[in-house]
Specification:
The protein is mainly alpha-helical and about 300 residues long. Helices cover about 70% and strands about 0% of the residues. The chain has one domain. The chain is globular and about 55 Å long.
Length: about 300
């Protein structure tokens, strides 16, 4: 337990440092994402039943580096980010640049998948397709959340606030689910995947996260920062966020069970691998990306 707490404190402190740097210089957060990508690449391939050789790791890394696309635009480097929570809507990149970055991301992934398919067919023939599809999905599993984080930061108004909320959400949801589940949990959800998860903890995470979202909403509702128009929509946004976080956790548990692994790695004492720490974030970041893009763009 001691090593678990120490590891959690170090991880939270590291995230906090890079978020604080990003509040003044958004590009700095890409350093954190690059470190996270490198660590995840070391663990992801065995979970999808793929060989963790140097070639596959390099290909996965090149797919994941698509998160850097927002940095290709001059606006990402010009001046200080505008993160004031008062006044009109502000974003580092304009709407046209935001759309262009999304299209470039899709193009990057399409080309990456095409290269993998061509190389596999050339080397192994049609038998390689059984490995190519999981490989392509594993690449998106890493690349899309990291791109979503940078897209939120650069292309969504008040991106720093939204990114902070997205990263805090799994901690809130998981803590509430664990506390209530361990104290009152009786009926298990998926005993074969996660023996400790209960329906009581599941609902506690959903309700508690929704209530947590009311705290910023009460102050900012009706302003440009929270254009969700009503408190019920804020509650729904928070409840769905917790649900998606918990599904992300269960999805990685299913991958580990399928691969015959207890943890994705042994990097973090008491937690396992980096994927064990960020599994919920890999789902919540695309959720925020999709909702906020619909609302703002």
């Amino acid at each position: 337990m001691k090593s678990r707490v120490v590891s959690a404190v170090i991880y939270v402190a590291l995230v906090a440092v890079f978020l604080l740097l990003a509040a003044k210089w958004a590009v700095s957060f890409s350093v954190f994402l690059a470190i996270t990508l490198y660590l995840m690449v070391q663990e992801i391939l065995p979970l999808f039943g793929l060989s963790a050789n140097r070639k596959n790791r390099l290909a996965m890394l090149m797919s994941g580096l698509s998160f850097l696309i927002p940095l290709l635009f001059p606006g990402a480097w010009a001046g200080e980010p505008m993160y004031s929570l008062d006044g009109s809507l502000k974003a580092i990149l304009g709407k046209d640049e935001a759309v262009q970055s999304l299209l470039l991301f899709l193009l990057w992934q399409l080309v990456a998948i095409a290269i993998v398919i061509f190389h596999s067919l050339f080397k192994e023939g049609e038998k390689s397709l059984d490995k190519t599809i999981p490989f392509a999905f594993a690449g998106l599993y890493l690349a899309f959340p990291l791109f979503s984080a940078n897209f939120i930061l650069f292309a969504i108004p008040y991106g720093w606030f939204w990114l902070l909320l997205a990263l805090v959400t799994p901690w809130i949801s998981d803590t509430l689910a664990w506390f209530c589940g361990s104290k009152w949990g009786k009926e298990k959800i998926f005993p074969s995947l996660s023996p400790k998860k209960s329906f009581e903890g599941f609902w506690a995470g959903i309700v508690g996260t929704a209530v947590f979202y009311l705290m910023p909403a009460i102050h900012f509702i009706g302003k440009d920062l929270l254009p969700f128009y009503s408190l019920p929509l804020i509650l729904l946004f928070g409840a769905l966020a917790s649900f998606i976080c918990q599904m992300g956790d269960l999805f990685e548990s299913a991958l580990k069970r399928r691969a015959g692994l207890k943890d994705s790695g042994d990097l973090i004492p008491g937690h396992g691998g980096i994927l064990d720490r960020v599994d919920s974030s890999l789902f919540i970041l695309p959720y925020f990306f999709l909702v906020l893009s619909f609302v703002y763009l």
